[in-house]
Specification:
By secondary structure, the chain is of the alpha/beta class. The chain is built from twelve helices and twelve strands. The longest helix has 17 residues. GO terms for molecular function: DNA-binding transcription factor activity; transcription cis-regulatory region binding.
Length: 337
């Protein structure tokens, strides 16, 4: 079995240089790094598990990050997780992902498991986290936490979130500027801050344009395919169905598409639709979905950057980073005749 000395001899470097390349804990030039990695591959060298554990005990780091995310039909979560995992890999960390399944009890158990495994930091991207008690968190005061997308449990957590108020206003103003006046909103669950803020943005834009919101034009749904489907069917049953709909996320917008298809209603000729998130499938729908873009890969990268900063600066004040949404024009909204 090849040793670190064998790798160093073949690559023409010191064993400490090989260690730095393997552990990614000090700068090594790209040329030297390529020679070391080539030697590792040629010799089929595998770093000792025992030496790795000894290093972790010495540095009090496990080079792992835990992440809690809720189950969902919405691929927005998957796309953010992909960005997080990529950023972890680039920085020499492993990611342990736990699915809460929307269950606050499972959330607490998974979180406790991650903390007992001595993860270096924790990312939380699930709506159930608001049920976690401060007493629970006080048992692990030294573990840095970054909350993504949802509100924090308390002021001790760093937060990255979307400016959903501006996003909701941006989407609604786009429909207004296209000449629509009868505009409905399919909002997400109102115990979720992003859903609430997107609804407020819709109301703000309608108020500023002096447009009435008729009874039945606001529907609170669940951020899932099924919610968009049932909500759109409900809107179609109104005496005066809307001319355009702002849907608070793309997953529900997909459900809206299906409901309109089943009803024989054409997009955008009969009803225009705008979504939110810009998930990957949005541009492949028929017609491609006009939506509000959230920078999901950037969200993952920034979350890891913020977490690593918190690890190195545990006494710094909690930060709140708000990302600015962007309108993506496609084919699901027409100019009102």
């Amino acid at each position: 079995m090849a040793t670190m000395k064998d790798v160093a001899r073949l690559a023409g470097v010191s064993t400490s240089t090989v260690s730095h390349v393997v552990n990614n804990n000090r700068y090594v030039s790209e040329g030297v790094k390529k020679r070391v990695n080539a030697a590792i591959q040629e010799l089929n060298y595998t770093p000792s598990v025992l030496s790795s554990l000894a290093r972790d005990l010495k540095t009090k780091q496990t080079k792992t990050i835990g992440m809690l995310v809720t189950t969902s039909d919405n691929s927005f979560y998957f796309e953010v997780v992909r960005g997080v995992e990529r950023s972890c890999y680039e920085r020499g960390y492993s990611l342990i992902l736990c699915n809460t399944e929307g269950d606050s009890v499972r959330l607490t158990r998974n979180m406790e498991t991650l903390l007992q495994k001595r993860v270096d930091g924790l990312l939380i991207m699930c709506s159930e986290h608001q049920s976690i008690s401060k007493d629970f968190l006080l048992r692990y005061p030294l573990v840095p936490i970054v909350t993504m997308d949802w509100s924090p449990f308390d002021a001790s957590s760093d937060v990255i979130k979307d400016n959903s108020l501006i996003g909701g206003e941006l989407a609604t103003n786009y429909l207004i500027n296209k000449g629509f006046r009868k505009i409905a909103c399919i909002a997400g669950p109102q115990d979720k801050t992003p859903a609430k803020q997107r609804l407020y943005g819709y109301r703000k834009a309608m108020k500023n344009a002096r447009l009435e919101i008729p009874d039945g034009y606001e529907i609170y749904s669940n951020f899932e395919f099924s919610g968009g489907f049932s909500s759109m069917k409900q809107l179609l049953q109104l005496p005066e169905p809307p001319e355009a709909v702002f849907v608070s996320n793309d997953a529900m917008a997909i459900g809206v598409y299906q409901a309109l298809y089943q009803a024989g209603v054409s997009i955008p000729e009969d009803i225009s639709v705008i979504g939110y998130d810009d998930i990957a499938i949005a541009s492949y729908l028929t017609p491609p979905l006009t939506t509000i873009h959230q920078p999901k890969d950037e969200l993952g990268k920034l979350a890891i950057d913020m977490l690593l900063y918190r690890m190195d600066n545990p006494d710094s004040k909690p930060k709140q980073l708000v990302l600015t949404p962007e309108l993506i024009e496609r084919g699901s909204v027409r100019k009102h005749r």
